[in-house]
Amino acid sequence: MKTQQRFSLAQLPTPLHRLERLSAALAGPDIWIKRDDQTGLATGGNKTRKLEFLIGAALAQGADVVLTAGAQQSNHCRQTAAAASRAGIGCLLVLAGDEPPRRRWTGNLLLDDLLGARIWWAGEKSPLEALDNATEAERAAGRSPYVIPYGGSNETGAAAYALAFQEMWEQVDELSQQEPFGFERIVFASSSGGTQAGLIVGAKSCGFAGQVLGISVDKTGGHLRETVQALLAPTAARLGLALDFGPQDIQINDEFLGGGYGVLTPAEREAIRLVARLEGILLDPVYTGKAMAGLLGLVRREEIGRGERVLFWHTGGIPALFAYAPELMVEE
């Protein structure tokens, strides 16, 4: 794959290992995990990989401040603030809604503040609309802004996950030296589409024959499908890859949305508690908890076979646990 301008941020490769006790509790399939919660930047997460290329692009353009937008507990915004600190440039985060009382600044919002990000509250506007206003204000103030899209999900950010798939593929190859080894499916949380698009490009380039399955956490399958589809060809081109994509390459399950984006339900609570108590691994309420709930549901419905080997790609998000403490502590 063709390389891109890159600003080193992540601790790579991230671990790949078996979830032995969870697999046993479910009586199969054989579940493994890719630990992108351990990328190392301000508690880690999948956006760190994307930000290596996005911050690289910002620096190449001479930017002195990066801007991006998201929810109040945005993992992407927290990692962007940390990346900007590492790069020595400013960071302005546009967050949804109105500013909460300072005593309620917890989870990712607390970390945004500790990392030195300035925050622009969107109020009644959408974060993306407010992002345009904030960018204009930065230019008017004499700064040189670089806008990072929602979730870091353009072809620059998505390319990082094509490389992440290649990293995982090399780990699989190493495991295969001792005995035949491979995955039938890769399961992960999908939201802004960049991680899924990158994984699809990586899977295609490596010749992976299994399923790359995104569990949608905040959009209907149709909307997310269009977002992913639009990213595939530009991401491949960014990496110098001549690949063809069809509808069958985009696999999305939106049956586990529950109460919607950021709404914790008993399904997510069970998934978070189960993995924590069996494996000592923390999932978050918004993304990985919902994706794991989806994986558990598919196993229990026998849509994932007991004899399969499945990879769960952990995309991070741990700080949000603290913002959801009251809901997580509800007695079952």
Structure, explained:
With about 325 residues, the chain is α/β, with parallel strands linked by helices. The protein has two domains: about 15-45 and about 155-330, Rossmann fold (3-Layer(aba) Sandwich); about 45-150, Rossmann fold, CATH 3.40.50.1100. About 45% of the residues lie in helices and about 15% in strands. The protein has twelve helices and ten strands. It has helices at about 20-25, 45-60, 75-85, 105-115, 125-140, 155-175, 195-205, 220-240, 265-280, 290-300, 320-325, 325-330, and strands spanning about 15-20, 30-35, 65-70, 90-95, 120, 145, 185-190, 210-215, 250-255, 310-315. The strands form two sheets. It has a six-stranded mixed beta sheet. A four-stranded parallel beta sheet has the order 5-4-3-6, sandwiched between helices. Helix 2 packs across helix 6, helix 3 packs parallel to helix 4 (about 105-115) and helix 6 (about 155-175) crosses helix 8 (about 220-240).
Q: Helix proportion of residues, in percent?
A: 40-55%
Named at the architecture level, the CATH assignment of the largest domain is 3-Layer(aba) Sandwich
Query: What's the domain count?
Result: 2
**Largest sheet properties:** 6 strands, mixed
In angstroms, what separates the terminal alpha carbons? 49 Å
Give the topology.
Elements lengths: L15 E3 L1 H6 L4 E6 L11 H14 L4 E6 L4 H13 L2 E6 L11 H8 L3 E4 L5 H14 L4 E3 L7 H21 L9 E6 L3 H13 L4 E6 L4 H18 L12 E3 L12 H14 L8 H13 L8 E6 L5 H4 L1 H4 L4
Parallel strand pairs: 2-10, 3-4, 3-6, 4-5, 7-8, 7-10, 8-9
Antiparallel strand pairs: 1-2
